[in-house]
Amino acid sequence: MAEKISLCMIVKNEELSLARCLRSVSGIIDEIIIVDTGSTDSTCDIARQYGAVLHHFPWNGNFSEARNASLELAQGDWILFLDADEELSPNSRDILLRLIENETVEGYFVKIINYLGKEGWVETVPDLVFRLFRNKKEYRFRGAIHEQIADVILENNISARYQVAENLVIIHHGYLDQVIQEKDKKYRNLMLIEKELELNPTNHLLQYHYGVELYRAERYAEAEAVLIKSASDIDPNTIYFPKLIRYIVLSQHSSGHLQEALNSAAVGLKLFPNYADLYFYSGLILFDLKKYTQARDAFLQAASMPEQPPQYASFGGVRGFRAYYYLGQIAESYLDEEEALKFYLYSLRDNPHFTHALEQLVRILKPTKEPLYTKECLEKVCDFCTPAANRLMGDIYFRHGAYGLALQYFDQVEEGFPVSSDIKLRKAICMIQERRFFEALRILEDFSPESPEYPLATVNRLLCFWIQDRPQKVRSLWKELHALGLAQDTENVISLFLAFSEKTSPSPQFVLGAEGMQLLLDIVQRLVAMKEIKRALFFLHALNLNSLTDYYLNIAQIFMNYNEEIQAIPFLQTAIEMAPSAAAHFQLAEICSQLNRHFEAEQHYRHALQFDPDSPRHYIRLINLYTEWRQVILNEALAKFPQNDLFKILAKEVSSSNEPAD
Predict the structure, then answer these.
(1) What is the three-class DSSP state of 88?
(2) Contact 344/318 with Cβ under 8 angstroms?
(3) Which residues contact 406 (CB under 8 A, 6 or more apart)?
(4) Structural contact between residues 244 and 232, judged by C-beta atoms closer than 8 angstroms
(5) Entry's Gene3D superfamilies (predicted)?
(6) Bridge-based pairing state of the strands 5-11 and 78-81
(7) What's the DSSP call for residue 13?
(8) Long-range Cβ contacts of 440-448 (<8 Å, 24+ apart)
(9) Which CATH number is 580-662 given?
């Protein structure tokens, strides 16, 4: 006679998830037992549609008691328990039926795939959970939260044998950010575990779960203390111990206890030498400490690890795209752009949706300076054959200020599906940047006053006419914007268009907040991109110096991005006068080096080194500078003393040192 399976569930207000769960087991489960703890939506109706035995249980804050109520009603030989936000994977249906034929097994640990993150950008983390066991009256759950039954079975049956259910997979959607926010799981779980710990203060498993919930609630120092306490005197063979070690490392890292986190990771790796996550997080900590060589070794170790066992609950990408991304970051710290590009490409190949790596590729390729080369390089390695991919590339190029490239990709989006209003607005902006004013205005005039984008579209119409020196149109649109009741910062920025058109000199009294500065810097970037340098400087000189204090480096970078390094110099010099930093000195040194002003470059590289002695890029630039400077001096000497033997010998040494190795 064939063994029968009872699906046992507890639910409350699960109308969005329950049908998906029940569909996944339809046809292979002999009965469905659902205990409802107080639903006010259509959950119970959905349960009835699938033929469930429905039992109402007043919620008392104890998950085990609710689960045990479902077990009391179960008639099958085996119990499978799922939550409503879970489902059985399609490939697991036949496997489940084969597993219950094994007469020597009392229960199974099952692989669960947790989906984490936001809808549209989701990552997966595997784990092992005990979800399938024989139905016996003495087997009942224990614990108000994170309820357990595997230990209870062993207590009642010392000869009970468990197995890992190979290839049986449960998919869990409940850790998606939206779901957590809707249910307020973090707060609920903390409250329940705290009550349970009052009754069982020495329970290691409860302490572990409490530490994890504290970590998720971003109470890192508390999580660290609780997790370390839960790890004392615990058997390293305990199934959750690898995860416990990882959470200790994460909590210590997030608490700022970096050396302690490194020590904990080292202890964990002695016990679990193939644990990729511990190598990866060691790499992160070493990267934060600017110990780049050690960090590189740790990330390479993480990437070389074999497939991780489910009980490690290994975080997605630690053996692939995440490790490669940080290897690219380390290569950049040594100014090795070729190696950085290689690792960012590895990262993208491992996960084409990991846009951080794509952003870094675009930045290194300098799309504002070399747009055609950037486009050719990326199209060789990336597939942009879908509207979504074209939208992504358009957005990235737009953020980097490569407006011509962005427009090409936005145009291709239209071929795939109707264009949203925000893409239309960005297309119009790109057209203005390409001086296609008539086409841009046609798009911008389509935005109605009721549209959320109308104020920004109107600002861009004003900019369009302002660039064309049409002051009457500028004043008319300024009045229209003024009538909308704009924020004071926005009003101040918009008034500068009018002041320039009417050739008045605004006194440098404007003090802008963060939003006002963001708008102003966006306008300045666009003007610099269009080579409207005089207009860009007009906007910048109209501000009170206090508004610019935190933005000098950003402004300098804008000019540098569009080959206007000379214009960047005063802003970097002012930044150094007001708040000297390694970044300001390094940027100014880079410009001086390009201009062959070697002495000034050396001084600024050395100042950068003083502010940040742990950064290898300063040493590398100084070495390169001295090598180049030596060649310049040697050439001067040879030109003046062409027959001097010493200079000839030095020239040969330099020439041979510059030859590529075999």
Answers:
(1) strand
(2) no
(3) 393, 394, 395, 397, 398, 426, 430
(4) no
(5) Spore Coat Polysaccharide Biosynthesis Protein SpsA, Chain A, Tetratricopeptide repeat domain
(6) parallel
(7) S
(8) 440/464, 447/421
(9) 1.25.40
C-alpha–C-alpha distance, residues 69 and 67, integer Å:
5
State the pLDDT confidence band at 187, using cuts at 50, 70 and 90. confident
Q: What is the C-alpha R_g of the chain?
A: 32
Q: Do 51 and 133 form a contact (C-beta atoms < 8 A)?
A: no
Residue 504: φ, ψ to 5°: -105, 155
**What's the pLDDT at 212?**
92
User: pLDDT tens, 19-51?
Assistant: 999 999 999 999 999 999 999 999 999 999 999
Q: Give backbone dihedrals phi and psi of 255, rounded to 5 degrees, phi first.
A: -80, -5
pLDDT of 501-514, one tens digit each?
A: 777 766 656 789 99
Residue 77 has pLDDT above 60, yes or no: yes
Measured in residues, the chain has a length of 662
The tokens for 581 are 């930093």
Contact 192, 213 (CB under 8 A): no
Sequence ranges of the domains in the chain: 1-175, 580-662
pLDDT of residue 183: 47
Residue 174, SS3 per DSSP: strand
Same fold, 1-175 and 580-662: no
* Residue 424 to residue 457: CA distance in whole angstroms: 10
What would the two tokens of residue 539 be? 């906007």
**What does the alpha-carbon distance between residue 438 and residue 443 come to, in Å, rounded to a whole number?**
9
Express each pLDDT in 532-564 by its tens digit.
Answer: 999 999 999 988 888 888 999 999 999 999 999
Higher pLDDT, 543 or 300: 300
Asked if 529 and 401 count as a contact pair (C-beta separation under 8 A), the reply is yes
How far apart are alpha carbons 68 and 460 in whole angstroms? 64
Tokens of 229: 């306490």
The yes-or-no verdict on residue 140 having pLDDT over 60 is: yes
Please tell me the distance from the alpha carbon of residue 348 to that of residue 159, in angstroms, as a whole number.
49
CATH, range 1-175: 3.90.550.10
